Amino acid sequence: MNDIAIDTIMRFRNERLISPNEDMPRESYFKASYSIWAVYELLERVMDHPLTSADDIINEFALKMELFSRETDDEEAKLKFRVASDVAEEIMLLFV
Fold it and tell me: What's the CA dihedral at 91, 95, 47, 32 to 10 degrees?
């Protein structure tokens, strides 16, 4: 089961990410929002596949987000996918 991974991801969310607020500069606001989105996407994927290694799920997510960021011409989408990939890579480091 991936209980330890779920706890680790939630700890990452609570200890390392800040909630977006209206006083932030626009780019910081979006980065904070996309980071939280990425964490909850990862949590959902890990919880939906309890028999698959969390490492594999997180690595696949990071690779997909990196690919999506390279394939889009939309700058906002590019930022979202880049941030999501970075978040996944940071979380992967917690499992080493």
Answer: -10
> Could you tell me where the beta strands, DSSP code E, fall in the chain?
none
The residue type of 36 is I
Please, what sign has the CA dihedral across residues 27, 35, 93, 8? positive
- pLDDT per residue over 40-71, tens digit each? 999 999 999 999 999 999 999 999 999 999 99
Residue 57 is encoded by which pair of tokens?
Answer: 């799920």
d(CA 39, CA 20): 14
Q: What is the pTM of this model?
A: 0.93
Give 18-41 pLDDT, tens digit per residue. Answer: 999 999 999 999 999 999 999 999
Tokens 């919880």 locate to 47
